[in-house]
Amino acid sequence: MNAASASRRRRKLSDGPLARQQFFLQLALIVAVSVALSLTTYSRAVSSTHEAASDRVLSIAETIAHTPFVAEAVVSSDPSAQLQPYALTIMDTADVDFITIMNRDRTRYTHPDPDQLGKPYIGTIDAALGGGSQVEEYTGTLGPSVRAIVPIYDDSQNVVAMVAVGVTLETLSVARAASLPQIITIAAVAILLGGFGSWKLSRYLRRATLGYGNEQLRRLFAFYNSALHSVREGLILIDDEGRLALYNDEAARLLDLPPTDDRRPVPLSEVVLPDSVRTLLSSGRDALDEVHLTRDRVLVINQNRASQPHADDVLDGGVEGAVATLRDRTDIQELTGELETMRTLSEALRAQTHEHANRMHTLASLIERGREHEALEFAVQDRQESQKLTDAFVDSLDEPFITALMIGKAAQANERGLTLTLTGSGEVPPGSLDARDLVTVAGNLLDNAFDAAAASEERHVWADFTAADGELIITIADSGHGIVQDDIDTIFRLGATAKTGPPHRLGRGFGLVLVRQAVTRLGGELHVESDGGAIFTVVLPLAEGGTDEQ
After folding, report:
1. How many alpha carbons lie under 13 Å from residue 242 in its C-beta half-sphere?
2. C-alpha angle 345/346/351, rounded to 5°?
């Protein structure tokens, strides 16, 4: 139970806010460093105090030994009478604890304690007797001390006496203790300043991490990273400098972006994007279900400004950037195109049914009046006229999908009171063109031509399909008012339409954009001219040995 409790406590501490953990860790480090530096400083102060005391007592001892008065006094009849007052004066002036002048046999001539006069000196004198100087730490009558012993020479340079100068360790301890307040003050100031800086840093870190702990951040990153790359929608994060900070695999697939790299933002200038998508991402504005077209896709894009989840924790200056999501609507648009084709065919059948009902009423009326011969002629003539267009076009161009579409469009033109002139030649090999793209191109161009021709006096539309030299050339012309040269690029932009209806909806302003997209997918070319009316020319290469997907 104790081990389990300790484990739970450690886990609880590790799950605490990262800012708090960082604060206490930095504070402990600052205290440890301050204590270590203080101890090092104190140790150096002790060492320097000892060295300074050694140098000082040695210097004083040498000065006394070389004084002529001392050299003469030690060989007088009563050295103590002359030297004791002198030594006491030097002790007070030089701030040392003792000055002992002695004979070669250790007999003291001077001492701070008059009772010690005439008694033997306690300490090492071998170096001094040999003519050298010595500094040592020794315990004498005054206690442990640092002392220097120097020989005194006569005129013949013989050692006649010695002088010892020293300070007690107690005095050195007092000197060392004097440095402690300064060391403690410096350490305390360092701890306070370091603690304040650590506290300020922890506050910033708390705002930056929203109060999460390191384990929570690790789990969040793992979950968010997995979610980012597992969602079936494209996700792009744009930073405040207009760079792609992060994007998932689906976004890379939809926009043909380079492989994702979570560590390095990608500038928008380094990737190839459609102009409308680039403009949206660089602007950072909010967008709701905006439809954008790439080379071969229809994308629905949403974009919102990036914001913190908690208003109270927003960093100074806020968070700049945006988050964009992308949904692929290509398949839906293809189904919409197929549905539009079926609608066109059903409208054609409805028109044919209505026309056939009228003719049946005519035939029934003629028969009821006994005019059977005229009824037979009317029926034969109607059959010939209805088959004339179909037979001529089928014989001219062997393409079943185009033929079926043209039959429907012919009935639609007839119902709208338009004249549709169809011509065709050549043969389109099976599988050489995608049937859906082919219907999209021809159907949308004819719908636009019908609308343009309906507003003219001539009300005429021409459609020609020619398959030759490995190409299918589609030419659609109308008797409308034509297109101004400056508007040719505009009509191929998303949402450009003269029809009434809500903007940016599939089916309004998409026709010519989808035509250009389909032509691009098929590897073809699209040209627009204006000669009285509009003339659209599409050149599509016919693939060799294509699979029959029609």
Report:
1. 12
2. 95
* Alpha carbon distance 14, 24 (integer Å): 12
Sequential DSSP letters for 404-472: HHHHHHHHHHHHTT-EEEEEEEEE--TTSS-HHHHHHHHHHHHHHHHHHHHTSSS-EEEEEEEEETTEE
The dihedral through the CA atoms of 488, 492, 495, 501 has a sign that is: positive
Confidence band of 477 (pLDDT split at 50, 70, 90): very high
CA–CA–CA angle 433, 342, 429 (5° rounding) = 20
Q: In angstroms, rounded to a whole number, what is the distance separating the alpha carbons of residues 214 and 289?
A: 37
For residue 102, the 8-state DSSP code is E
Cα–Cα distance, 198 to 19 (Å, whole number): 10
Q: What is the DSSP string of 479-509?
A: SS----GGGTTGGGSTT--SS-S-SSSTTSS
Tokens describing residue 2? 């104790």
Q: What is the pTM for the complete model shown?
A: 0.47
Q: Cα–Cα distance between 443 and 204 in angstroms, integer?
A: 62
Buried b (16+ CB within 10 A) or exposed e, 240-256: eebbbbbbbbbbbebbe
Q: Please list, residue by residue across 77-101, b when 16 or more beta carbons sit within 10 angstroms of its beta carbon and e when fewer do.
A: eebbebbbebbeebbeebebbbbbb
Report residue 246 as tokens.
Answer: 């992060």
Interval 273-312: pLDDT, tens: 888 888 888 888 888 888 887 777 778 889 888 766 554 4
Sign of dihedral through CA atoms 110, 116, 120, 125?
negative
Q: Which residue(s) pair with 528 in the sheet?
A: 536
Closest CA to 99 of 130, 59, 46, 39: 59
Residue that is written with structure tokens 């030649």 in the block: 425
Structure-token pair, residue 213: 């702990």
Distance, CA of 38 to CA of 45 (rounded, Å):
10
* 156 strand-pairing partners: none
Which whole-number Å values give the CA distances from 165 to 59, 60, 107, 175, 279, in the listed order? 9, 7, 15, 18, 91
When computed from its CA atoms, the radius of gyration of the chain, rounded to whole angstroms, is 54
pLDDT tens digits along 511-546 = 677 788 788 888 889 888 888 888 999 999 987 654
pLDDT at position 475: 94
Q: What is the 3-state secondary structure (H, E, C) of 271-315?
A: CCCCHHHHHHHHHCCCEEEEEEECCCCEEEEEEEECCCCCHHHCC
Q: Are 541 and 470 in contact (CB under 8 A)?
A: yes
Q: Which residue has the tokens 């003539």?
A: 381
Q: String of b and e for 261-293 (b: at least 16 CB within 10 Å)?
A: eeeebbebeebebbebbbebbeebeebeebbbb
Say which residues have a Cβ less than 8 Å from residue 151's Cβ, sequence separation at least 6.
65, 128, 129, 131, 132, 133, 159, 161, 162
Please enumerate in sequence order all residues whose Cβ is within 8 A of that of 525, keeping only pairs 6 or more positions apart, or say none: 519, 538, 539
Q: Report the C-alpha gap between 507 and 323 in whole angstroms.
A: 28
Of the candidates 519, 504, 542, which has an alpha carbon nearest to the alpha carbon of residue 438? 519
In sequence order, the 6+-apart residues with CB closer than 8 A to the CB of 540 are: 433, 438, 441, 471, 472, 473, 474, 519, 522, 523, 524
